[in-house]
Task: structure prediction
Amino acid sequence: MSESSEPPSGSGAWQGPAGSSTGRVAVGRYTLYAGGPGGTSAERAPREEQADPSSLRHALAEEEPEVSAAAELEAAVDTASEVTAKLEKATGLLKSFAEGRFELDQLNELLRSFQRWYGERRFSDAIRLARSLVTLLLLAQRWTDLVRTLRMVRRAAEQIGDTHAQAWALHELGTLSLGADDAEAATRQLDRARELRREIGDAQGLKVTEHNLRLLQARLPWYRPRNLVIAAGAVAVAVAAAVIALASSDGPNPSPTTSATSSHVTSPTATSTSATASTTSSSTTTGPQAPKVVIRTPANGSTTGLTVLVSGTAGTGDQDADSVTVTVTPVPGESGAPTPPRSAAVDPAGSWFAKVPLRNAGGYSAVATQGYDTGKTATSAGVTFTASRGGNTGPTGPTGPTGPTGPG
Result:
């Protein structure tokens, strides 16, 4: 008997098929429609349907593991008929998923077959199975297995020169990065998928890739009202400055009884100083409180790989910026190399992460900053860590993302 379960309740509620897709899942600010002939398509989700993308983010941030050699995998030799049977099983399982029945043990069996075929370098068979397997893993919200499978498909396609499969895998990875709100990775992957699909004349796939790219380019920040408040504050400051300038140049001469005010008007320097002092005093006594920015990983004194996941929490107030800037710098005297700052989106729960690739092993320090109010900045406490090729052990054991994660 196969194990069945209700549809998963991970990042977002699973729903039945719409149009040519097999089903859809809400993740982040988007609804992903899986199983379409050109690949997964995305649409903006209504605010009430948006879901926490942190599990998907962490899956995408994982370093690509070394694939086990064929000798270490389950020993089996499938005949051509057995391969066909597994492909048919995957198709049947998709129908079950579309009806809301999740045969989890069969899904795990298909995943093991894919991994074994990949390890045996039977890349064509693995890619054929992955076409259905990827849709199943997406609908089940098995984010880590999904990301690993797509990366293996991409490598397999490169090995055998299958440009269609390579473009498809890049499209799927780019669409997942879109759902995870990683605009940099989504743009890079979808752009490459578009190039390949143009080269091979894949009109159907190209249409879906270009649709997702347009959605990416038109994306709005998580906290639209917050940015409007900041913009309104900037406009108010500009209007106030204009009024003061007009009063200084064209207004009536002040009366002798207003000598304190007169001194401010007749002395531009004094006016500027007074205005600055007034602004500073106002922001100190009645302005918004600075957000608390915290780095959760890596831990102080830990050891990471050469791609380090910096994650933490930040403010979600109306006047807090919707992203943080992560700066990783070499510790003086160490062998680390400078790396550009990274921007990380802050989700509705206040979580953020940035995947920072480092060129050299060595000691590094990391800080995160978040803007708030108008032109102000809050900075986290710094953490120091050592990057090495061994990777990912901390002072008290293994370390990894410890921020909020959903099921996945």
